[in-house]
Amino acid sequence: MTDELQEHLNKGMYGTPKLKPDEQRKYLGTFRERVDLTVTFAQLNSEKYYPAIQKELEAHPEYRMTINGSVDQDQLSRLIQIANSANASFTCSSDLTFPHAASDLAVVIAASHQAIHTEIVDVALRYPLDNNAATVSAEKPSKHRFSLKNLFHKK
Q1: pTM metric for this prediction
Q2: Domain 39-113+121-126, what fold?
Q3: By its UniProt entry, which Gene3D superfamilies does this protein fall under (predicted)?
Q4: CA angle 68, 72, 74 (to 5 degrees)
């Protein structure tokens, strides 16, 4: 049997093979290069990240929010309200192959048909919750600023 014939038979029996299936399962059906922001189930349990989701959807209403079907009903309704208020599209995917542990992704905000190559996609890294922010801003800024001019100019 030739390779072409075997490939044709395999497509008929099993369907067309997916490109990067593990990556698509992790990012709720999309490729990593299209992802703008991700939220895990553990992060979704915290009330602190919902404003970050809203801010991202308002900044990019052309992106689509994909919600893992294992998300709690209360969280799902809140995410739908956020998407509607931002005029953004959303999808709730109940694919049973998507993982649903605390460290797995519950929400993915991504471009629909193009690569955007966002480097930092985790909501905790992009929108850090720094409790020391008030302490740092209360300190006086240093009067001396580092500059390359200082290295090469005599004082």
Answers
A1: 0.74
A2: 60s Ribosomal Protein L30; Chain: A; (3.30.1330)
A3: 3.30.1330.30
A4: 120
